[in-house]
## 1
Amino acid sequence: MSDESTVTTEEQVPPAPGRHKQSKGSFFRELPFLVLIAFVLALLIKAFLIQAFYIPSGSMQQTLELRDRVLVNKLVYHFRDIHRGEIVVFNGLDNFAPETTIAPPSNGVQRVLRSVSSAIGVGAPGEKDFIKRVIGIPGDRVACCTDGHVTVQPPGAAKPVVLHEPYLYEDDHQVFCQAGAGAQNCPPGAPGVLVQPGRLWVMGDHRGFSADSRAHIDDANHGTVPINKVIGRAFVIVWPVNRATVLSVPDTFTSGFRAPAAAAVAAAPYLLGLAGAFPVNAVRRRAVRRFGRRAAAA
């Protein structure tokens, strides 16, 4: 008999009795731990990096439609200032009145499910969360209207910049000014609203249906929003799939104003991500090599 006929390869060795059952049992024992780790990671990502938000109203139509879901970058404003034209989510508690009313859960199961979905950022929003477009940043003077357009005069600028906003839906051309009680009392040529340090002037893209800074102009802060209440920047629509798109800054905010001075700071998240990719990739390659050696030795 030749040597070749007496050799038994590893593939020909039948599996040990119970080995398959042990493997399956080991997986199910580890499953709760894997679920817990996934849940903790989701909480960390929501708390510090990215959170999903549900659009509950039509105040940002047609840029954002009712029931769209967007992802919000919660890290970017730790590295740079907020820019005009960006869409931000902010906590409007004590500043804005709720635009929608969320029905309370009717039973214990719904309360648990809502708490879990809210914790990981996939549930319905709270009534305190708002999403608007930034029109004025600290030092800007915002006014309406010049030939039907909103104007923004940055600090030190000789004249205001006229905003041409093709993304608007049902623009009501509402006149607003800082002095007086409401738009109807704004005198001709009123100077508009001066955005104070640490605050933002925000407006919805559906101007006729948005209870934005204009609706709160008679408040102590003239409708402006505290920067420290901003949760993050909405940067992409992820649902429904047929509406998935990146939410970029319109050209009117990039051509009429000076470019932000801190370009390097703005790129910091991407540079940090690139730097972090190398050690992660090194760990991955080491794990692949180790797994390959074990498989070859088995």
## 2
Amino acid sequence: MKINLNKIDNLNAELSIELVAEDYNPVIEKKLKELKKTVNIPGFRKGMVPMSHVQRLFGKETKYRAIQELIYESLSNYLKEQNPKILGEPIMNNQKSENIEVTETKNSIQVVFDLGLKPEIEITFSKKDKVDFEKIEIKEEDIDREIERYQNNFGTYTDVEKTEDKELIIGNLRQLDTEGKVLEDGIKVDAGFLSLEQIKKQKDIFIGKKVGDTLTFNPKKILETTEEIARLLNIQKEDAENLDCNFSFEITQVRRFTLAELNKDLFSKAFPNVEIETTEEFRQQIKSEIEKLYLKAETNKLYQKIKEYLLEKINPELPESFLKRYLSETNQKYTPERVENEWHELRKMYQWQLIVDKIAEEAQIKIEQEDLLTIAAEDVEASFRMYGLSNIPSETLMRLAKSKLEKEDDVNYYYWRTLEQKVLENVKEKIQLKEKTVTVDKF
């Protein structure tokens, strides 16, 4: 067996593998012997089929399979042992490779694989490297909005005698025919609910109504969207689009929403693990929470700017023709046309991977299991925040974070994110950050 690496230039190489009969014949013979023990052929007992008969029936197929397996095994071993710095995976060069059928007339075969080589890149940093770091200004109205959100979240509904403007009415809905009678097979909803704040038209129909009153309305004429109609009547959106008729609504309950009072009860519900005595302390705690949220956004934007800066500064060369071919031949979703259309972004993806790997190698950055759990827990916490939930117990976050690391693909995803973050943190400490304060709108 002969394996030879031929560098075409700094970014491309060819790997040729030549197998001779002495390499593959023993493998073929072994496979045929194994086949002889297990194959079922009419007229012969299992394991007693003459080798000549096995050879005649399965020899060609077995030979091709054995040679193909040996080629890729040799390729894999070479890459592990010699560890050439390549991008993607080797691709067989069909024009320069011999077909396995050549072994019918000669006692050797040669195949050639194209390789894309990683470029040699040098990365240095100093305080001459400058990147803008935008910090968001927190205003009093930002805190006011958060206070109102907490008051809404922990507000309460109470039963009232009649409707005024913003109540929630609950009752039984029945679809009516053109004569105003209940449609026997029509839409019926028990304990349906409607907020008067939703109603933009014909609102006077609902004002001053009490429990026991029955009113008539057309949902299409009082509600603005088909989604609201579908939700009210518990039907599909498609059905709501074509609905244009009256409904009766027998009111069984009128409820009024009251914002939670700004007191210790609200403070403890909003931040159960923090001792808050006064409104001013509550505002400070909210400001601290906003700062945490803004810090995440500020850091993400900073990291994006550092990434763009490094891509422009280093701009590694790539074996572009090889990578385009590699993508289109190994990934079904990438046609040659799509690769060309998206190459600008794909090119940056490969370049960024090279930069991250190089910085991580030089800085000796290591990724531990705890690092993966930390970033997975951050994702879990962010998901809770989307629903207005904060101060989630750490054991809950860790349990959910571990569940995000059960699949190999997810582990790889979090490994890359963690490595990328550590690299960016490393770079941040070595360059100059030009801080400037901006409004949240400007940010």
## 3
Amino acid sequence: MASTPGVLGRLRLFRKTPPETKTNQAEDTYYTASQFQLMWWKFRRHHLALIGTFLLFIFLIISLFAEFIAPYDPFTRDAEYLFGPPQRLHFFDETGAFHFPPFIYGIEFAMDPKTFLLTITEDTSIKIPLEFFVHGEPYRMLGFIQSDIHLFGVSDGFVHLFGTDKLGRDIFSRVMFATRISLSIGVIGLLIAFFLGIIIGGISGFFGGRVDNTIQRFIEFIRSIPTLPLWMALAASLPKEWPPLQVYFAITIIIGLLAWTHLARRVRSKLLSLREEDYVTAAKIAGSSDQRVIFRHMVPSFLSYIIVDLTISFPYMILGETALSFIGLGLRPPVISWGVMLQDAQNVRAIALYPWLFAPLAFVILAVLAFSFVGDGMRDASDPYSR
């Protein structure tokens, strides 16, 4: 009987926490959480935004390590496999046996007696296993890391997961390098639009009066011009003798200079509503300069809305570069971008006979959807108290 209190005491330790106690703990956690924590909890409930974040992470990895992920240099040619279709990876052979790593079959060529087109079929008597971390063409990753290790490849010959183009260049490798160029144009253009929108919109909203009226009329003039014809006119004015790198920076600047007006309007409207707040008046009385009041006190108060606006605007910059390059007014070979690669798919013959040339289009769609999903999630998360 003496041991009974001890047993009862131990039983109390394992007793479940009452539901009302758990509810109180959850409420305490919610009401004591920081603004960032509330935004993160709201964001992670947006499943499409999480999927978009994962896709953007994949694009970031591809952009940073394209040389490692791509099995070949983007200009390496397979002269025996021109306009070759994608080679399928097989995990099961004709007997049903499982293979890992997967393999590809050999190829054989034949002439179609009716259309006189060269057809390519799989030779099931030849199995070529896929190898990982193989030695291949040397490269400099991130500009300074010398290596020749590639993520995958084959010991003899080539493997073309996305097929080849008219010169026999591996489309998968070219798409990996094109991802870096296309996304970097979007990022740099976005930074240009960000600083122009913040500065011009901040000046317009803070000072008002004639300054505001002049800036708003200028913005309306820019927005009244159709975007695509304006891009085409500016891109066509670039000298043909400019080197590819110079054209790359020029296109990036053009896209950034035409994308700041929407952000400037939003910044202006926010500052018009905030410039009479007490903390702004207190900062002025304390002797703060106009620049400090705008960028240290007013802009940070609605920074989350600015981030959301930029995230939603990013797809339009990617589409702008792709459209200009597709019609031949943007980037030009040997620069590789999604739009430049899609130039090879401008005719009906490519659609009918070589549909794998549209592989970059899938990456454009995924990038646009990813940024749109993340933008929607951040827009909801910027107001964590809404339902």
